[in-house]
Design brief:
With 220 residues, the protein is α/β, with parallel strands linked by helices. It has a single domain, classed as Rossmann fold, CATH 3.40.50. The protein has helices at 14-27, 42-52, 60-84, 95-105, 111-121, 137-147, 159-175, 189-206; strands spanning 2-7, 32-36, 88-92, 129-134, 180-184. A five-stranded parallel beta sheet has the order 2-3-1-4-5, with helices on both faces. α1 (14-27) crosses α8 (189-206), α2 packs antiparallel against α3 and α3 packs antiparallel against α4. It is globular, with a radius of gyration of 17 Å. It starts with a strand and ends in a 14-residue tail after the last helix. Bound molecules: adenosine-5'-diphosphate and thymidine-5'-diphosphate. Thymidine-5'-diphosphate is lined by residues 10, 15, 36-38, 52, 67, 93, 97-98, 101-102, 154-155.
């Protein structure tokens, strides 16, 4: 079972890396599922539209529950079946986003409460590896606005919000050093991809019964 998740603040470059990894794995014969949060099922995409609607008034606890509702649906409808079918699942954001954005950004709940809550939401599913792309909030915002100058409801938050989110990610990485792999988001897209690939190849080598075809070079 391989569930690989990507985390970081908006504009850090994690979706670019999730896509690159997915293409690489598929080119090397792996069956994969790439999904994003919130999204990936009909219900979760509808919840996404509600959550990102710029002018909607959303209570912080309602926000926490809506992101989590979208996640429960995604796990049960797509992620678990894909894992059971032997696919590698790549998820662009997962519950660490909720700990960072709702827990720290909105100050809705403490990390201990959230940890047991996430356990209920995902029915105990924990990522095999989480790639945390770290980038300072000012650079991330500049990348984002160059890409698309309009802000959604979350992106409209100020610099202080994003500093709280980044600090929460930092604390999570300290707390879960075996699961969360930090990446310096200031590196080039290619350099980041190479680092992630090396780590995934090591995971594939360690996973019993998984044919190792990810690197190409070390395949029989
Ligand atoms: P996120 O998913 O974290 O919001 P994206 O992957 O969508 O971020 O990247 C945001 C923007 O930054 C895109 O225009 C993308 O091409 C660019 N970008 C991504 N990674 C890098 C990088 N390592 N260096 C420079 N620009 C990058
Ligand atoms: P998205 O456009 O997918 O942003 P990005 O490309 O940066 O991932 O929008 C998702 C937004 O929702 C993003 O601002 C992070 C936020 N979010 C939360 O606040 N909590 C969550 O649990 C998740 C999954 C996302």
């Amino acid at each position: 079972m391989l569930l690989l998740t990507f985390e970081g603040i908006d504009g850090s470059g994690k979706s670019t890396q999730a896509r690159r990894l997915n293409e690489h794995l598929q080119e090397h014969g792996h069956e994969t599922l790439l999904v994003r949060e919130p999204g990936g099922t009909e219900l979760s995409e509808q919840v996404r539209s509600i959550l990102l609607e710029p002018d909607l008034n959303v209570h912080p606890m309602a926000e926490l529950l809506l992101f989590s509702a979208a996640r429960t649906q995604l796990v049960s409808e797509r992620i678990r079946p894909a894992l059971e079918a032997g696919q590698i699942v790549i998820c662009d954001r997962f519950y660490d986003s909720t700990t960072a954005y709702q827990g720290a950004g909105r100050n809705v709940a403490n990390p201990e409460w959230l940890q047991s809550f996430h356990h209920r939401v995902t029915d105990g599913l924990v990522p095999t590896r989480t790639y945390l792309v770290e980038l300072d909030p000012a650079t991330a915002r500049a990348r984002r606005t160059e890409d698309d100058p309009t802000d959604d409801r979350m992106e409209a938050e100020d610099e202080a919000f994003y500093h709280r989110v980044a600090a929460a990610y930092d604390a999570l990485a300290d707390e879960h050093p075996a699961r969360i792999h930090r990446l310096d988001g200031h590196q080039s897209i290619d350099a980041l991809h190479t680092e992630i690939r090396a780590d995934v190849e090591a995971l594939l080598d360690a996973a019993p019964g998984t044919p190792h075809t990810a690197s190409g070079s070390s395949s029989p």
